[in-house]
Amino acid sequence: MGKTTLAIQLLLELLATRKAEMAAATGNEIVPVPVLLPISGWDIDKYPLLQDWLGVQLARNYPALAATKHGTDAAARLAKGGYVLPILDGLDEVSEAGRSRVIDALNISLSAHDQLIITSLKREFSKAVKKAVQPLNAAAHIVPKRLTLQASVDYLSACLPASPPDAWRKVLAALENGTAPGLTELAATPLGLWLIRSVYLAPNADPSPLIEHLGSDATALRVHLLDRIIPALIASRPPSGDPADHFRPRRELDPTATRRQLAYLARQFSTTRDIAWWRIAKTGSRGLRLFIQFTDGLVWMLASGGVFIYIFAGADVEIPRGFGFALGLLFGAVGVLGAITWFDDSPGQASLRMRGRTLKLVRSIFSWRHEFMAPVAMGAAGGMAAHSLKVGLLAGISGWLMGVVPHALVEWAEQPILTSISTPRSTWRSDRTLTLLRSLATGLLCGPALGMLGILEILGNSTVSDGGPMATFTVGVGFGFAFGFMGGTALGRHHAWLACAAAILPLAIAKQLPARIMDFLEDAHRLGLLRTVGPIYQFRHAFLHDHFAAHPTDIGSTRRN
Q1: For residue 316, is pLDDT > 50?
Q2: What are phi and psi of 532, to 5 degrees?
Q3: Which listed site, 194, 226, 311, 325, has its alpha carbon 20 to 30 Å from 468?
Q4: Where are the domains of the chain?
């Protein structure tokens, strides 16, 4: 118990002494940077070598590594070059069949110069080594001592007033005398002490159950405490709006709803134990996913079909209006197929900071390297062939506005800066920013583009609308914004936020998850029920995860009902 805390303390110490170690290094000796990662997220089938998976995790958790200043594939180069000391936490939290595979994969991945720290419960590690093809090469085993009985008593006594109530005196006496063996066993672990403190000490509750019928059974006592941990934390930590108060939620939480919603997440993310918000959409029913796919197809159909109909309506050549609908249906089918990947999309990195990046934005917009420059050339060539240089110029500008500029803006925003960080909230906001930037940029730029295409009708001696050029331009702008906004939403990469936002509403109606999912996860983190590792959440302890997954409601209340 206490593996993660120990790993974090070790990481902080390694960072504190790294400068001194670098000063003492000789020749080309590398002093690696320690990085803590949950080993449960390693997909060995996809990444057989540790360095390949480590490079992917570094790129995800530290987006600043993708800044142009560091060159290409900086994360992969650091992982493969020995510049990172991976601290892999929680081998025991991997499935029993997967633990031995981890040992085998580490032996294949590591050379004589590679370094590694791995944490695990002792029994699970021993079983994994016996089942593996060979032991972990050159491994030094460090086994922390169990908490002594006196240490547990001293800890609880330090949390109590100088003259504790009689009920607590009896609990401390039972611990010292060994008359409550279940309590003694539970209090010998950091998790047990945290549960006792959170459930009985913090809310100032009567601790008598600790030494009554539950005091002789450690398993029953742990279940009892796990059942009551959520209401106890919510009661003892009322909401606070103070930014400096990191351990109190921002909103009022309902204990029953919180238990049900965390249980849903525990069940859905039981394989890797990584609660990634961008995978929540995939936890919905198949019908929900199909609905999102066909909605995307409808957006594509309306956006593309509307644009084609508008363009064909003013063409000199008679084109059946149904042709526009047919093209819209074709693009709608493309949208349905494209939305399949939304549920596997990872969040994108985005920054709209202009300072020091204005020149990059200008270069991106006016770059001739874009693959989207084709609409400019095609529009200009077609306009000149059909009418005149003026028409060709307007057609080229329209193609540039619709095809190049939105793509350039998104490409520029996706370039990380050196201060980019990766947390659950930052990745949520970044992906939302990309979606809104795509939609607004495409809409705002397609509006003038279609307006100018409408003017081309007049310049090309087509039938002029009753309202004249200004009315034609205005109608085009309206059509362009509406269809561009819809199309921009569905275009591009990184639809994680869009898929999650679309999936959350029906899940909230079914009371499986709250509508404001990120606020809920952040509050659960502030309460101490969840922890963060880069952009993902995990339950504070595997026992907590497994208990909520197996028992979505309070066992005691279920029995009483």
Answers
A1: no
A2: -115, 145
A3: 325
A4: 3-131, 149-236, 256-283+501-560, 286-496
Name the token pair of 133: 């093809």
Average pLDDT over residues 146-155: 90
> Which distant-in-sequence residues (6+ apart) come within 8 Å of 36 by Cβ?
7, 8, 11, 87, 89, 533
The whole-angstrom separation of Cα 60 and Cα 57 is: 5
CB atoms within 10 A of CB 464: 13
Q: What b/e string do you get for 314-351 counting C-beta neighbours within 10 Å, with b at 16 or more? A: beeeeeeeeebeebbeebbebbbebbeebbebbbbbbb
Alpha carbon 105 to its chain centroid, in Å, reads 26
Rounded Cα distance between 210 and 207, Å, is 6
pLDDT band at 409 (very low <50, low <70, confident <90, very high): confident
187 within 8 A of 215, measured Cβ to Cβ: no
Look at domain 256-283+501-560 and name its CATH class: mainly alpha
Alpha-carbon distances of 269 from 40, 43, 286, 542, 546, rounded to whole Å:
11, 14, 17, 12, 10
CA dihedral 277, 278, 280, 284 (to 10 degrees): 160
| Paired tokens of 20 | 């001194």
Residue 174 contacts residue 185 (beta carbons within 8 Å):
no
Instruction: Decide the pairing of beta strands 84-89 and 33-38.
Output: parallel
Mean pLDDT on 163-174: 92
- Of the chain, the end-to-end C-alpha distance in Å amounts to 34
Q: Tokens for 122? A: 């002792």
State phi, psi for 475 to the nearest 5 degrees. -60, -40
DSSP 288-352: HHHHHHHHHHHHHHHHHHHHHHHHHHT-SS---HHHHHHHHHHHHHHHHHHGGGGGGPPPPP---
Question: Which residues face 89 on adjacent strands?
Answer: 38
Residue range 64-107, pLDDT digits in tens = 888 778 878 899 999 999 899 999 998 988 888 899 999 999 99
Of 38, 50, 34, nearest to 83 (Cα)?
Answer: 34
| Separation CA 457–CA 54 (nearest Å) | 57
Q: What is the pTM of this model?
A: 0.77
Q: What is the DSSP letter of 135?
A: P
Sequence-ordered list of residues with C-beta below 8 angstroms from that of 425, at least 6 positions apart, any chain: 518, 522
